[in-house]
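Revision sheet: structure tokens.
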Amino acid sequence: MWKSYYSKFLELIEPLRQSSDVQRYYKYCQKNKFFTLILFIFLIGIVVAACWGKEEILPTFFVSLVSLMVVYGSSQDSKNKLRLELFEKRYEIYEELIKFSSHTLQEGEIGVEAANAAYQSFRGLKYHKSKFLFGDDVNNYFNEINGCFATMSAARGIIPSAPGFQEWTDKKFESLKKIMQITDVCPTLFAPYLYFGDIKNKGNI
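Predicted:
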């Protein structure tokens, strides 16, 4: 009895299995935790149906899960479309942040070019713009780099004979180290907002 139901089940799902949309979302979910969850639910459904003698509900159950996968895949596509539409604005800020790091390390100070790059990425109006383009992870990092900017700018005016000169020198050095790390931190930090390699590799865009 089980084998006959299973054969009918395979016959019923064959058109779905051959569907280009289903194949597309299957590939998309293959490396996704959501797909693993769906597979787990499906296996549980098979066991429960077999134990209760309700094998006839399996095709409907499977179609429901496939529909859920398609809805999930569509929502992910919508998110990626929005991410693509915001790419240029986000990348502009990312690029200016890298320029800020480069100019600061070349000069050892916050020079004119470094300051211009800062005001095009994490200071002034661009900082407020970034709050709408990025999440707390990036904006908190901008606050940290902005603190380094403020520290280095303040330390620049401290003369060697001034009280606390060594303390300001140490603070400046620590800030410079953090600015030096920008090129290492940013590719990973900005990846959720800028990286599309996973989508391109699956042929989805």
